[in-house]
């Protein structure tokens, strides 16, 4: 695949949906684009603002929290898996409204609690803690929300 073909194909993808560098690298690799051409395509996409890591981080954090109801830990790990990390990630994560974040966790735990048939309080608590942890919420907040808002 030539530089121009790869650039057109990659820019079309970026125009439809926000993508990060690693997403495009993976696509270019799948299309069997040579590494040198791949680097040129990515540089061009960044130059033309098709790829913007900061913009991507903002959208990713907002989407994963709002729609997937992931906690900050899981979001951060998933971004790290895409080779995106640093102070800007922490800054965007810290901009999530604390009350909204806590309310989201409380709602998740209430929904989960209603599906648990167990009667032993310790097993219920254990199940809720595991569930919230798997969603990427912080342990202190999990314990706090369980103690404050969940009827065991």
TrEMBL record:
It comes from Plebeiibacterium sediminum. The keyword Cytoplasm applies. Its main location: cytoplasm. Keywords: Cytoplasm. Residues 99-146 form the RecX third three-helical domain. Belongs to the RecX family. It is found in: Cytoplasm. One of its GO terms (biological process) is regulation of DNA repair. This is Regulatory protein RecX. The keyword Mitochondrion does not apply. Coiled coil: none annotated.
